[in-house]
Amino acid sequence: MVVVAVIAILAVVVVPSWMKQASQAKGTSEVTALFNEIASKEQRYYSDNNAYVDTTGTPCPGSPSSSQQDASCFLASPWSTLSIAPPESAKVSGSYVPVARCSYKVKTGLSTANPNTGLPSPFTLPTSPATSWYWIYAKCDMDGNGTYSQYLQSSLDSTIQKDKEGE
After folding, report:
1. What are phi and psi of 29, to 5 degrees?
2. What are phi and psi of 165, to 5 degrees?
3. What predicted TM-score, i.e. pTM, was given to this entire model?
């Protein structure tokens, strides 16, 4: 009886912690891969065109999901300008399409623009950049509970900032 009680107490403590870590790992792996892809394509586009590609009006996919969803939007404008190749794909209606769980967008600006304008809370960036800039934002709901994890990376700071990761 004591053994059963100890196992029950451990399960109550360990299972939620394990679920949170699994959710964090899913979010971090997808976001890191796509942020790296988007950042490298933005830099390549900038060196060819002296401008970054802004996608804030077209988040891809439109909303986050706890399961993989069709992310063919990466193949449509304005995302197609960057030639994004999401790291995951799945078979949908007989053909493979890119998939993602998180929703992504990219905002760009000139050195005269404040990168914090339109930046989701609680993130902040330097207010007087020396050059043109971009930031990449991801919104995720890995466990489907309606609480969103947020991630941000920018040309001004390559560190991935995180908010409510795994919640």
Report:
1. -65, -45
2. -60, 125
3. 0.83
